[in-house]
Please model this.
Amino acid sequence: MVAVFSFIDYWSSFLWPLIVINDVSQATIPLGLSMFSGERGTDWGPLMAAATLAVLPSLLVVILLQRQLVKGVSMGGFGGR
Model:
């Protein structure tokens, strides 16, 4: 369960990469998504397509590990009963 939450946290990191990355080619996915907004407005079509693709790995991890997530939440919430 911790692995799933850690993966999602690192996958969606924005602030730290924004501070330390100087090259656009090394940008993380959230930084890349923020580049769709500019001085001339937001290009909504490509932004939504990219956001959909960015969500797919996290969604896949949650779907594959759904039983372990439910088991972990039920064990923690009810004391293992």
Remarks:
- The radius of gyration is 17 Å.
